[in-house]
Design goal:
Blueprint lengths: L1 E6 L5 H10 L3 E4 L2 E5 L2 H14 L5 E7 L5 E8 L27 H16 L7 H8 L10 H13 L4 H4 L6 H4 L18 H11 L39 H18 L8 H23 L16 E4 L2 E4 L3 H23 L11 H7 L11 H15 L5 E5 L7 H12 L7 E5 L2 H15 L6 E4 L3 H14 L13 E2 L7 H4 L5 H8 L2 E5 H5 L8 H11 L2 E5 L6 H16 L4 E4 L5 H21 L10 E5 L6 E3 L5 H21 L5 E5 L6 H19 L1 E4 L2 E9 L3 H14 L3 E6 L5 H14 L7 H5 L1 H9 L5 E8 L13 E4 L4 H8 L18 E4 L3 H8 L27 H4 L7 E2 L11 H18 L23 H5 L8 E10 L2 E10 L2 E6 L4 E3 L12 H11 L3 H4 L1 E6 L4 E5 L3 E5 L1
Parallel strand pairs: 8-14, 8-15, 9-12, 9-13, 10-12, 13-14, 17-23, 19-21, 19-22, 20-21, 22-23, 28-30
Antiparallel strand pairs: 1-3, 1-4, 2-3, 4-5, 6-7, 10-11, 15-16, 17-24, 18-19, 25-26, 25-29, 26-27, 30-31
Helix pairs in contact: 1-2, 3-8, 3-9, 3-10, 3-11, 5-8, 8-10, 10-11, 10-20, 10-22, 13-14, 16-26, 21-22, 21-32, 22-23, 22-32
Length: about 1050
């Protein structure tokens, strides 16, 4: 190919880029180069430029595409120097801020709310107590937080009391405990319904939300959150100095403007409007407060003046900002930020970079019509036609394509098609760290996305390093490739100047600036958790500036699913496109997503004062079975439910006619004891091997099988049982309770061996497999068995010959089945064999029976069963829960979508019971907390968000490390106390047991240490394990199978 390179670099970047470009191309102008070049050479040049790029770098590369034009391939550095087509501006000018008449009324309201609240948000810091606290040598705990004192003072000052008189309210326990100062005429306890209440909530919550344990329909309490004592010490009730007149005078002027603008919008019917305003105004206030507080005040502060905060100078704590200066500066920044966030909420240009044209062209490249991915072309065409007809309407997409059909690729393709920006921006949120890295690498390799366009965030530096080392080992050597950034790989790109101060590190800037973010959902989830303050604002900014893809959205527990639904709601509020994908998206899950989406659209309508009109949005259904379907008129709940039901029925009809690739039989468990369970597993393994083994060498038949277990301890026990019973088997155990380097080793080997898109060639050529097969001299049959917990279920691109499943839910059965025959896709319609065994009972039920409690919940953690629901789950007997036909069952998405499965119906009922209180409508017609109108006051408390976390934070995590010492090893635990933190030798709470001789994929501690050095990570990091513990647990380490809790 022939390329042209244009440099618009400034300062020192000019000389740096010239040296690089001169070594690859011929300079034909002062800032122009051209050359013929190969794809490999171009990639090398691109990497070299990115490696030295700074904020002053701007180099564009154009390719002669043979159609009498030059096509922009990529830009390194400041992309704003070039237009989307590669043009360079001949003149630039800065647009002035629109005048008030051009600004929507709601946006002016948001700006005024942020200003008014910012001006008085720290009035409580004028107390003698707070000023003494700033000057004290030790940290002190407040009996009454300064933000709540600010609210109480504001109420008194608005009633005409003097500054000195206002402080006396703090001596009144009743006034101090009153969360909302409102008339009793309101019929129910709703969120802020007036401008003054909205301002009070902003002031009170700019550091934390209220407390509350009474649930919906009750006003949250300031007890525990803001007020910790009934008896307030005298120094809290006395001001350090007088309030500057200019502050109160400015407050009165701004408050008057706000009252004139929105004074008529009062009462319960306006709570949606005020709540929408508060989302933006509160984020603006937190943004401003954090940004200004981080500034260093240039002058020395008068020792007697009231200060806002302190800073450390050469290790000494000193007063920093004058309080009056702090209030004025935060007010200015909050107003500016609110206006800019309002622009983002309207979908206006964020000045953030989007995907470059070369990446977009690669993503939109059609699939081969002869491949099994051709359905993507049909879906893309339908979405493209709809977008042309509806250029400004957001869309909710349900991608229900089957396992292995390319859902992840289609998700990104749909996001690019539906984007209303010339350069699309997108966030892909996933549930697992390893899945995040796998998806990021797959997108970059398979779709040809430019490295500068994508960032991958996982929050675990060791996992990132191991993944990159493994990729380097299997890829071509590229010495000029960029060194990956720990925790977050990718380029940040330039951020708008107003955002710079809030994002203090390159890692944080990457999260916002990357056009395509592939991330664990943990970061984005903070957008729906207002109690997380600064993290909440950062996630919110990403959410409002990029479309959202939620992959495997039904892989979350019900409480975590509620947290994900809050993201859907906010994405709809900001007018973003949202793509939800899963091959097993059940009716109850889809209806909850729809409810969250519609509630976000209603919130957006009320903000724009268009509550009487029909929401403008569309819903699309795409999959690999049926023609795409777009519901152009915004459907209500009943219409959507009917449409989804019809779609599911059509899909199940299609699946019923499709070839059967995963055929299961029921493995009896007799008796219902732990030993009976393990005997059942053994029988199932032996039968499946006999029916699915294939010839590896003369007189040698092998097979690769998966045994799915719900819990780590049970997985290790099952692995030991199989290893002891089958001398001809090599048994591995894969779960989260393992040393990091050991788990990585297992994942790396399984990824290599079980990628069977081209058959068994990798297995035939693998030296270790050949050695292990030859080692079994007394048997023609050799089994390779992986006993795994649910970490294997989602995202691992493995193709096993067979699987034995301990069931936890209908979802778990379908997901595990997706790891069988995944790449080879052998049809079992005319083969008298099965490749899956489903155990009649799970091990928890067997243990319950041993203890005389057969009705106790069995399908829990993982699973959806609640106490007292045994009847709904047919006494946990899979013979009754699944729709067997002549003792066999073809497993596909129908099993989860309700195709005669009692198991799926019971799961749906359990999920609905836990999700409906938040995003649903109960039998009495009561709306869930997060979609309720008027907005419930309980949403002002942190409690509902803490009750529905993405991750269970009540579970204690322990960090352990193993240290090899010759032929033995020592255990260390990370301990934290008042003296500090560090590694402490601990031989009492962890012990070892001997590994069986046929343990597979196992490493001795000395071997793990060697692998750490090869991977380029320190043994201290690689030989760590994060373990879940309950009460006073101790642990047992098995070098063959990992770490388990001692029971």
């Amino acid at each position: 190919m022939h390329i042209v390179l244009i440099s618009e670099c400034t300062r020192r970047s000019i000389s740096k880029t010239r040296k690089i470009l001169d070594s690859y191309a011929i300079r034909v102008g002062v800032r122009t180069w051209m050359t013929p070049i190969t794809s490999e050479g171009l990639a090398e040049l691109h990497a070299a430029l990115r490696k030295t790029a700074t904020r002053n770098t701007a180099v564009a590369c154009y390719q002669n595409d043979g159609r009498r034009r030059m096509r922009l391939l990529w830009v390194v550095g400041a992309r704003g120097k070039f237009a989307a087509n590669g043009a360079v501006a001949v003149h630039t000018s800065r647009c002035s801020k629109p005048r008030n008449k051009e600004t929507p009324v709601w946006l002016r309201c948001v700006c005024l709310l942020a200003q008014v609240a910012a001006l008085v948000h720290d009035l409580g810091k004028y107390s003698r107590h707070f000023q003494q606290k700033l000057r004290a040598s030790q940290r002190q705990r407040d009996d009454v937080r300064h933000e709540w004192i600010s609210v109480c003072l504001l109420r008194e000052l608005r009633q005409g009391k003097s500054w000195q008189e206002a402080w006396r309210v703090l001596c009144n326990p009743e006034a101090l405990a009153r969360t909302m100062d409102r008339p009793h005429s309101y019929k129910r306890c709703c969120a802020p319904a007036t401008a003054s209440e909205a301002v009070e909530f902003l002031v009170a919550s700019h550091h934390r939300l209220f407390a509350g344990d009474k649930g919906g329909g009750h006003v949250p309490s300031v007890r525990d959150s803001h007020v910790r004592s009934d008896a307030v010490p005298q120094e809290y009730c006395q001001p350090h100095e007088a309030l500057p007149e200019d502050i109160w005078k400015k407050y009165q002027g701004l408050a008057s403007k706000l009252e004139k603008l929105a004074g008529a919008w009062q009462g319960e019917r306006y709570t949606l409007f005020w709540w929408a305003c508060l989302i933006l105004a509160r984020a603006s206030l937190i943004f401003a407060d954090h940004t200004v507080s981080a500034m260093e005040y240039p002058a020395c502060l008068n020792h007697g003046a009231s200060a806002a905060n302190t800073r450390f100078v050469e290790g000494v704590r000193q007063l920093n900002q004058p309080l009056s200066w702090h209030l004025h500066t935060v007010t200015h920044v909050a107003a500016s930020t609110a206006w800019r966030m309002g622009q983002l909420a309207q979908g206006k240009d964020s000045l953030l970079e989007g995907l470059q044209e070369a990446s977009v062209v690669s993503i939109l490249d059609p699939a081969d019509e002869a491949s099994r991915f051709h359905w993507q072309n049909r879906a893309a065409d339908a979405l493209s036609r709809w977008r042309l007809e509806n250029p400004e309407i957001p869309c909710l997409v349900f991608n229900m394509a089957g396992t292995g059909s390319g859902k992840t690729r289609m998700n990104l393709r749909a996001a690019c098609i539906l984007s209303r920006q010339s350069a699309p921006r997108c966030s892909i949120a996933l549930n697992l760290r390893s899945l995040t890295l796998q998806t990021g690498r797959s997108l970059q390799d398979d779709l040809g996305i430019l490295p500068a366009d994508m960032a991958t965030v996982i929050g675990d530096g060791v996992t990132q390093s191991l993944f990159d080392w493994n990729h380097q080992a299997t890829a071509t050597d590229d010495r000029d490739a960029d060194e990956p950034e720990i925790l977050c790989s990718g380029d940040s790109g330039p951020l708008p100047a107003w955002m710079e101060a809030f994002w203090r590190t390159d890692r944080e800037r990457t999260v916002l600036g990357a056009p395509l973010l592939v991330s664990t959902i943990d970061f984005l989830e903070a957008a729906g958790c207002p109690q997380r303050q600064g993290h909440h604002v950062k996630a919110l900014l990403r959410l409002m500036t990029a479309d959202l893809v939620l992959d495997e959205i039904d892989s979350y527990d019900p409480e975590a699913f509620v947290a994900v639904l809050r993201l859907v709601q906010l994405g709809a509020f900001f007018g973003r496109n949202i793509i939800c994908s899963s091959a097993t998206l059940s009716q109850v899950t889809a209806e909850a997503i729809h409810a969250a989406w519609v509630s976000g659209q209603h919130l957006r309508q009320h903000l724009a004062q268009q509550s009487g009109s029909t929401p403008q949005f569309s819903i699309a259904f795409i999959d690999d079975c049926l023609a795409p379907n777009l519901l152009e008129a915004a459907p209500d709940a009943a219409t959507f439910a009917q449409a989804y039901t019809c779609r599911m029925q059509d899909m199940m009809t299609h699946l019923r006619r499709s070839p059967c690739q995963r055929r299961a039989f029921l493995q009896p468990v007799e008796p219902t004891t732990s030993q009976g369970f393990h005997n059942g597993v053994l029988k199932a393994v032996q039968r499946l091997h006999q029916e699915n083994a294939w010839e590896f060498a003369p007189d040698k038949r092998i097979s690769f099988g998966l045994v799915r277990m719900a819990h780590i301890n049970d997985a290790i026990a099952t692995a030991r049982s199989l290893a002891d019973s089958l001398s001809c088997a090599h048994v591995a155990c894969y779960h989260a309770g393992d040393w990091r380097i050991s788990r990585f080793h297992k994942e790396r080997r399984l990824d290599f061996l079980l990628t069977r898109k081209r058959g068994n060639s990798r297995i035939f050529s693998d030296k270790e497999i050949r050695t292990l097969v030859a080692r079994v001299a007394d048997s023609q049959d050799v089994l390779f068995i992986v006993v795994a917990t649910p970490v294997e279920e989602v995202g691992r691109d493995h193709d096993f010959d067979w699987a034995v499943i301990e069931p936890s839910s209908a979802q778990s059965i379908v997901q595990v089945a997706g790891r069988v025959n995944r790449h080879r896709m052998v049809c079992y319609d005319h083969i008298p064999a099965h490749n899956i065994a489903i155990l009649q009972y799970n091990l928890r039920h067997c243990k319950n029976c041993e203890q005389g409690n057969p009705d106790h919940p069995a399908f829990v953690s993982p699973g959806y069963e609640k106490k007292g629901a045994a009847a709904a789950y047919a006494r946990h007997d899979l013979a009754n829960l699944l729709p067997w036909q002549e003792e066999t069952l073809c497993i596909d998405a129908r099993l989860r979508l309700g195709g005669g499965s009692c198991f799926a119906n019971a799961d749906d009922k359990a999920i609905g019971e836990r999700v409906t209180p938040y995003f649903g409508v109960d039998r009495d017609g009561n709306e869930g907390l997060f979609i309720q109108t008027p907005v419930d006051a309980f949403r002002m408390a942190s409690t509902p968000y803490e009750q529905t976390p993405l991750r269970d934070r009540s579970v204690r995590k322990q960090l352990w490390r193993i240290q090899p010492e010759g032929s033995s090893w020592t255990y260390f635990e990370w301990k934290t106390d008042s003296q500090g933190a560090g590694w402490v030798r601990n031989e009492h709470e962890m012990s070892a047991e001997k590994a069986p001789p046929n343990a597979w994929l196992s490493l001795e501690p000395s071997e793990m240490e060697t692998l750490c050095h090869e991977a380029g990570i320190s043994p201290e990091e690689g030989l760590q394990a994060e373990l879940t513990s309950y009460d006073s647990d101790t642990f047992i380490y098995n070098p063959g199978f990992g770490i388990r809790r001692k029971i």
